Request: fold
Amino acid sequence: MEIKFEREQTTEEISFSGTVDELLKKLDINPETVLVLRAEEILTEDEILDNEDKIEILNVVSGG
Amino acid sequence: MDCGKCERKAVIQLQHGALCKMHFINYFEEKVFSTFKKYRLLKRDDKICVATSGGKDSLTVLYLTKRYLVKENLDPQQLFALVVDEGIENYRERTIEDLEKFCKEHDVELHKVSFLEELGATLDKAYPKINKDANKKPCNVCGVWRRYLLNREARKQGATKLVTGHNLDDEAQAIMMNIFKANTKIAGRLGPITGTREHGSFVQRVKPLYFCTEKEVRLYTILKGFKVHYSECPYSNEGYRFKIQDMLNEMENNYPGTKQGIIKSFLALLPKLKEEGESLEEPMQTCKECGEPANRDICNACKMKVIISA
Reply:
């Protein structure tokens, strides 16, 4: 799976299949602070992700 | 997950249920419009200055304030945007660019002022001099100067209300900061309409996004297609507020509804806090240097200005 991190402006490849909620737990990200997108579609935390997915993690916390 | 109101796919799970794009946008806009109404944030003859930065909160509040004026048959030309360039390298330039495009697209007049032109130095250059003995972060200088210029410029342009993009998260953080630091005298200054003390030069501040969480605001900007580049103030993780923000997000994740609970409790106490603040706080004075509202004979903005010009 390819994950683009908006805040860090980085992209990472990881092996993962499961829900958005499980992915955020694995990445140690508080779901309260981000939105997760796949192909520009907003995903809720129960959405199932596939290892082939390309996702983007957007930060919701104000930066200043 | 499906929307609780229709068959479409949900974009967010809120405490009261999941919502699709259309139902979330309706819910969000209605919440902002009802805040305007319930707290009487604007009057018919108000000239409105919207404090902007180009970030998600200010673009959203600018867009929805204009929409509200149109909806209520008020004159949208009574509204203008104001941005303060603090002079933070590699940060503010980008958000101002986004803001300029947005204002052009939505036919809003934009006024710009900067720390450098109005106060004599950028924040980057000013704060090491001002804070040299106290070893403080730049946020205290930025806060004082920003509030000063927003009030002064809003009034100069004839504004009677200053609309800000403060959201529920900002407010919950400010409430907790006041509690942790025992700032009981100034606690009553918060709320959807700020201020406990009156002064002829003080433009009243109002917060239409008061009941909207940061997550809801960011989601709204995405769903509406507003171009907001995420940019982070290089000083943002240095302040006390950052620690509180982190703590509240942790609490919210483990105990959903925590932030709403803080706001609800605070609003229930606000009339008492305002009463207390009015009796404890000294009346506002006028700065002998610049004529702006001040706590003492010289305002904090002028005191800081003197330090950097020495």
